[in-house]
Design goal:
By secondary structure, this protein is α+β, with helices and mostly antiparallel strands. It has 26 helices and 15 strands. A five-stranded antiparallel sheet has the order 1-3-4-2-5, sandwiched between helices. A two-stranded antiparallel sheet has the order 6-7. InterPro entries: Anoct_dimer (IPR032394), Anoctamin (IPR007632), Anoctamin_TM (IPR049452). It is found in: Cell membrane; Membrane. Keywords: Cell membrane, Glycoprotein, Membrane, Transmembrane, Transmembrane helix. This is Anoctamin.
């Protein structure tokens, strides 16, 4: 019975003053005095939380109407008042679970007493709550939006929660195998598959990280003896043209450190590593399919169907309902396509804005009073651009989500499964372009569309586009990737973990009420503890998947420019598994459980990334890297090609890759300021720049066209060989192991035998 006696002077009875535990509402009784005993605190399916509104206010009427509707449908409710908030415990009738088990042929393989597993029970009740509406047609989603209710969540089971913490969700369990089945029985199949995939991905990163480190060490081994580095570091007599409108002339030897760093990531081992990563991505996916099928086989979900479950839940909720029909509108499709193109154009526009920022930053930094900044203006501008790119990614993450949701609503897809699939594709596409559009520019356009002295390409007729270093553009790509990847992984993980941890601790400090042993205090403690945990929503697991897919993209695409990317991903994932586990079990409300037999559309995303990785790495080696120009020089233009045997075959390569302009040409002088034509107090009569052009008319030389043809041929050859290897690997490794196929065959056979025996027994009885 509801207690109305409140005495503010009785501090020692705080729990009685601030909490009112109302009786369970049994739908078969009409008065509050005829109530059943309190249900154990862990047995409630869901808890609804809302502000305690004034009597007869609109929000109060809607709140009561929703609870009354649930009671009329057979749900038992328990009301709790605490600090101007009202909590409603919801217990669903067993009838809906028996209907579910009957319609879907006992999908959880449970006993007759239990009927469904706890994750399935949570999922069913969530569907019923979401599809319960009050008199004016408003559903729970609308009531949450209007703040009639402010939260809805299932309760953590304290016993099972502690088991998961001891086995899995703690730092000391880092080197232990993940209890995937226990995770599935607590959070559902989709969360279990996420951790299964993440664990497998982390395990498969080990060989990729080892090979990447070997490639890096290979470049480090020849750090001092490489003739290209020596040529740059000893190029005191080579005067280079200014890199920007305010930059001075400079000696080639000034970029000795830059040349050394470039060699670490642009060497002969890079080609092998790129081919290896293309093969690795294929093997990873194929072996993952086998690994997944072996695990799912234990769950006995081979005949389970998402669409069928959704139809069954619709019928259980309303036996008179009619299923939503499949629809298609060409007008909507065209509109969505146009809006997607506009969004992509906006993202590409932001990438170009970053280019403009780097160009302008280079000009201002080169004119800085600080010698260190002016000497390394180009490198500092690239790093500043990378940091700004990261900030752009953070902001666009929210914009991309809102746009993707709007487009999905515009499409009006029939099922929740279809909406989730379409949202995933759009969101990943937008995020991918946001992250990689700037990298694509650096990899394939930087230093190739900037023109030449006397005919520079300028932004708005004012600022020159950026140029590459004489050692190549691959270091610029490496800097961009390293800054973004390190910032995204470190800062994202710190914020992702510390934010819910701090929030949870603050809520616990605010709730200083004494704990009691009675059933009413058990209910109060359990509900408030779960309420004070951090909120989860339909995007919580999606965010984790998206984060890992972006990381996988960094690990495979452009890996030729950053062989250490797999190592960074491995280190990050080692902590990521435990961070996510601790967060889900100890810091967040219980996640909405979803049944599935695979990772869904994410598998197609992984396959698409694998194809893009082959194309991108082929282009990085063929276009961005100086691998092809060095190869052509060594065998056609170098000293060894001319018969020399007492000199390194790559001697003279740097000088060969530079062209010369003379200041006596009026068009050349016009592109530089007077102050730029003076170096060490002397007038400069000529300077060099990276390109293959004639010194007379500045036309491309025959060497340029030969290198261009070899680049094109290499990219075609690399991609075709890599794709063939991918197809062979995919064909060679079956998606499902024979043991799993045979086990499924035996199960079907045994089921048919049982059905046949039942039919024969019924015939005999007749």
């Amino acid at each position: 019975m509801e207690s109305g006696n409140k005495n503010p002077d009785m501090d020692n009875q705080r729990s009685q003053d601030n909490i009112e535990l109302l009786p369970i509402r049994d739908p078969d009784h009409t008065t509050e005095t005829d109530c059943t005993p309190l249900i154990p605190c862990s047995k409630y399916d869901y808890v609804l939380v809302g502000k305690e509104w004034p009597d007869d206010s609109e929000h109060d009427r809607k709140q009561k109407a929703f609870i009354k509707t649930l009671e009329n449908k057979g749900y038992q409710t328990q009301k709790l008042r605490e600090k101007n908030k009202v909590y409603f415990g919801i217990l669903a009738p067993e009838e809906i679970f028996s209907k579910y088990a009957y319609l879907l042929k006992n999908p959880d393989n449970c006993s007759e007493e239990k009927m469904v597993s706890t994750p399935t029970r949570i999922r069913i009740v969530k569907f019923m709550l979401d599809n319960t509406f009050i008199g004016n047609g408003e559903k729970l989603h609308a009531l949450l939006k209007e703040k009639v209710f402010e939260a809805v969540f299932p309760l953590h089971e304290e016993t099972e929660q502690k088991k998961l913490i001891n086995k899995w969700a703690r730092w000391t369990a880092c080197f232990k195998q993940q209890p995937i089945n226990e995770v599935r029985m607590y959070f559902g199949e989709k969360v279990a598959l996420y951790f299964l995939w993440l664990g497998w991905y982390t395990y498969m990163l080990v060989p990729a990280a080892v090979i990447g480190v070997i490639v890096f060490l290979y470049g480090l081994a020849f750090f001092e003896s490489n003739p290209l580095i020596k040529e740059v570091c000893e190029g005191n007599s080579t005067i280079m043209c200014p890199l920007c409108d305010k930059c001075p002339m400079w000696q080639l030897s000034e970029t000795c450190t830059y040349a050394k760093v470039t060699h670490l990531f642009d060497n002969e081992g890079t080609v092998f590593f790129s081919m290896f990563m293309a093969l690795w991505a294929t093997w990873f996916l194929e072996i993952w399919k086998r690994h997944r099928s072996q695990e799912v086989c234990k769950w006995k979900l081979n005949n389970w169907d998402e669409n069928e479950e959704e139809l069954a839940l619709d019928l259980i909720n309303d036996s008179d309902c009619t299923p939503d029909r499949y629809q298609h509108s060409y007008l909507r499709s065209i509109l969505v396509m146009v809006l997607v193109c506009c969004m992509i154009a906006l993202i590409i526009g932001l990438a170009q804005a970053l280019v403009v920022f780097r160009v302008i930053a280079t000009v201002f930094l080169s004119d800085s009073k600080w010698q260190l900044l002016s000497d390394h203006a180009n490198t500092v501008a690239v790093m500043m651009g990378a940091v700004l790119h990261y900030l752009t990614i953070t902001i666009m993450n929210k914009v991309n989500r809102k746009v993707a949701l709007f487009l999905c609503d515009l499409e009006n897809v029939r099922s929740n499964i279809g909406k989730e699939r379409n949202f995933t594709v759009k969101m990943f596409t937008f995020q991918f372009l946001t992250l990689f559009s700037s990298l694509i520019y650096v990899a394939f356009f930087l230093g190739r569309i900037n023109g030449r002295p006397g005919s520079y390409v300028r932004i708005a007729g004012m600022w020159r586009l950026e140029e590459c270093h004489p050692s190549g553009c691959i270091t610029d790509l490496f800097i961009q990737m390293a800054v973004i990847m390190v910032l995204k992984q470190t800062l994202s993980n710190v914020v992702e973990f510390l934010s819910p941890w701090v929030s949870y601790k603050i809520h616990n400090l605010q709730d200083k009420s004494p704990k009691g042993g009675s059933e009413s205090n058990c209910i109060r403690d359990s509900w408030l503890r779960n309420y004070h945990m951090n909120e989860v929503d339909a995007f919580s697991l999606f965010n984790e998947f998206l984060e890992m897919m972006i990381q996988y993209s960094f690990t495979t695409i452009f890996v030729a420019a950053f062989p250490l990317a797999p190592l960074l991903a491995l280190i990050n994932n080692f902590f990521e598994i435990r961070l996510d586990a601790i967060k889900m079990v100890s810091l967040e409300r219980r996640m909405f459980c979803k049944k599935t037999i695979d990772i869904g559309i994410w598998l197609q995303v992984l396959q698409a990334i694998g194809v893009l990785a082959v194309i991108a790495n082929g282009l990085v080696i063929g276009v961005t890297s100086d691998f092809i120009p060095r190869l052509v020089y060594k065998y056609i233009y170098g000293p060894c090609a001319k018969g020399a045997t007492d000199i390194d075959c790559m001697s003279g390569y740097i000088n060969n890759s530079l062209s010369t302009v003379y200041m006596k040409d009026h068009n050349i002088r016009r592109d530089f300021e007077l102050g730029q034509l003076i170096f060490n107090g002397n007038n400069v009569t000529q300077c060099k720049y990276k390109d293959y052009r004639s010194d007379d008319d500045y036309a491309y030389t025959s060497q340029f066209w030969l290198i261009f043809a070899v680049r094109f041929a290499f990219v075609l050859l690399f991609e075709h060989v890599a794709v063939v290897i991918k197809f062979i690997a995919a064909w060679f490794v079956p998606d499902v192991p024979l043991a799993v196929k045979n086990e499924n065959l035996d199960r079907k056979f045994e089921r048919l035998k049982r059905e046949l025996r039942k039919m024969e027994n019924r015939t005999t009885d007749i």
